[in-house]
UniProtKB/TrEMBL annotation:
This is Ribosomal protein L9. The lineage of its organism: Eukaryota, Discoba, Heterolobosea, Tetramitia, Eutetramitia. Residues 12-84, 96-174 form the Large ribosomal subunit protein uL6 alpha-beta domain. Belongs to the universal ribosomal protein uL6 family. It comes from Acrasis kona. One of its GO terms (biological process) is cytoplasmic translation. One of its GO terms (cellular component) is cytosolic large ribosomal subunit.
């Protein structure tokens, strides 16, 4: 059943500037600027004072669900430009220790000796994302402002070390996300 109007608002905190033009949302904050396009959705977006209004007209269940999805995505953008995102990844191996090398200004990670293979896996980070070693053994930290970019970079690292043609219950080797958080911790 179609509803006449479904709407939801996102509160804009102090120090954050949001503009929504042609369903392209731009969020500017202390850590930088993030831009996300919602051109594929039939929604109205307007900035009124310190709120962003997202509205759907004559929508069925799926179209009404898009309103909440857009609001969640904008809230993630706001969190990204205020606190940033930080994911920690751990290396898991049974016999052959995994070696990594971070090159090109913390933008590319090279994974060596995975399962004893000579093949070097190179994973390039998405724009705006950096990777670095932490103080702990066999741990890296992937950080950036965009949640989508940071989580996709972690997925690319994890996907490069998937075990093929073996029993995955026995061969648990790989690089896995162990912790999620923010770069700027709340006081």
């Amino acid at each position: 059943m179609k509803t006449l109007s479904n709407q939801q608002t996102v509160e804009i905190p102090e120090g954050i500037k949001i503009s929504a033009k042609s369903r392209i949302v731009t969020v500017t904050g202390a850590r930088g600027t993030l831009k996300k396009s919602f051109r594929h959705l039939a929604l109205d977006m307007t900035v009124e004072g310190n709120t962003l209004l997202v509205q759907c007209w004559h929508g069925d269940r799926k179209h009404n669900a898009q309103v909440r999805t857009v609001c969640s995505a904008v809230e993630n953008l706001i969190t990204g430009v205020t606190k940033g995102y930080k994911f920690k990844m751990r290396f898991v191996y049974a016999h052959f220790p995994v070696n990594i090398n971070i090159t090109e200004d913390n933008k590319i990670i090279e994974i060596r000796n995975f399962l004893g293979e000579k093949f070097v896996r190179r994973v390039e980070m998405i724009e705006g994302v950096t990777v670095k070693m932490t103080g702990n053994k066999d741990e890296i930290q992937v950080e950036g402002n965009s949640l989508d970019s940071v989580s996709q970079s972690c997925a690319n690292i994890h996907g490069s070390t998937l075990v093929k043609n073996k029993d995955i219950r026995k061969f648990l080797d790989g690089i896995y996300v162990s912790e999620r958080g923010h770069i700027v911790e709340a006081e």
